[in-house]
Specification:
A 7-stranded parallel β-sheet has the order 3-2-1-6-4-7-5, with helices on both faces. The chain is built from 9 helices and 7 strands; from the N terminus they run ααβαβαβαβββαβααα. By secondary structure, it is an alpha/beta fold. Helix 3 links the parallel strand 1 and strand 2. Helix 3 packs parallel to helix 7.
Length: 222
Amino acid sequence: MHHETTFNYLKRFLTDERLEKIESYAPESSDFVLPVMEDIFQFRNAAAIVRSVEACGFHKIVAMESINEFSPNPKVTKGAETWVEVEKMPHSLDSLRQIKNRGFKILAVSPENNATMLPDYDLTEPVALVFGTEKEGVTDEILNFADETLAIPMYGFTKSFNVSVAAAICFYELKQKLIRSGTDYKLSGEKLWELKVRWARNSIPRGQEVLDNYLKSLESQI
């Protein structure tokens, strides 16, 4: 698929307001931080995570599932699910190996294994940020597999945040680090056009049908 051409076709079905928003927010998107969730079971947590990811401009989540389905509550996401891609993978080290092979450092959010504190972390390469389950945190096998661990400083008797709160803190702080760093962290080229196609498709009534029909028409011309 030639994403730029496809987007230019789809945008004719968008309202002026929606097109303006896509053109405004897409260039701010980034895949430098990839949130990876371990078998989240509370739909409110899943929804809050989706909302925080979108607000910080990362727009993709990997949900590793075993027992539980990652199922965000639309009443909590407030429409963020339209913009955030959720890739579902098995809850396994093989999934993390695949993510690592895509060029991400595996960074487990946990105080174990001589964790670096979030304010001190030097974000210089793309990271897959792994958050554990609500009750048990990051599993031991993933802690042992991770390249590094990252911890959020705590200043009271309570020694952990709710997973959705921890995720929001990390997304926001890492986004600020990227902004200050001067790193070229935003999407460009085909990745950017692919994002715009997905957003346009999700914004159009029966958008997948419209897209499929367009692609079939291209095939018939070959």
